[in-house]
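Lecture 7 notes: from sequence to structure.
We start with the chain below.
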Amino acid sequence: MLNRRTLRIKVLQTIYGYELQQDQTIQKSKSLLSLLITNYYKAYLLSLQFIVKTALYNQTYRERMAEKHIKSKVSENYPITLANNPIIQAIENDKNYQTAIEDTKLQHQIKAEDLKILYGNLSKKEQYKNYFNDNELTFEKHQKILIYIFNKILLKSDLFKVHFEDQFINWYDIRELVYRSINDKIRACTTANLGFSTFYQPLGNERKFFAESLLIKTINAKKNNFNLIEPFLKNWDIERVTTIDIIILRMAIIEFCEFGEIPVKVTINEYIELSKIYSTPKSKEFINGILDKLMRNLKESGKIKKTGRGLLNL
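Predicted structure tokens for the same chain:
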């Protein structure tokens, strides 16, 4: 779920915050990084739970119709196609899903009246009517309706937005990542891998170590690494070089020299991508040019020592 690119983004955000706050310490920054990661997982799980519960409300809706004695044939024939969606059923019936919800104390977060509103909004949509009236549903159609529910019903709902804003103080730092993760996971699942583990993989020790080490080493080596960068800034307008650009270069130097298993080309490409997202339109050219020179300089001085997979394209 949280790949190295995502962890680089979280580290970049944390270091940027560290640079802006005078009273910030490395320990506080480490705690902030941990909070960003923890809240990402919790927000992802809550988003998944919103999808599951909204879908299962399809069954609840039919039961309530029957309780109110709304034309028995109507209630009996009301489709529960969404509640029986194979992806929803696989997640809901997975004990690991229930355990994760309980461990993060999310089991009582979503109120029945909220689900009533969300399902009510969904039930009016033509896309949903087409889905539950379709007699030839494919797995792809089951995927598409869940993506539609998330992107067009939940994300468009003020109820959903307020819920997450109230729950997570750093929601705006993690929301795009959560949105992307939910969409990617639904699109990637197949009939052969419908278990909860397909949708949720906790952060392993190796990636946690990568994120924390990258954070701490980049902060600690600020002065030394800027001294490595400074000679290559002569042909650039220093006033136009952003704080983010410098942090990206410092992080890349740490990866070059401290993470032997990561190929230099991977590091260069990853930080160019980060510059596209978080810096100025011209940053890509700047980061690419400086990183190439830094890499050659560090290689010549013997500071880049790669092992295993890190030797690729060296």
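Points to note: The chain has two domains: 22-199, 221-311. The chain is about 70% helix and 0% strand.
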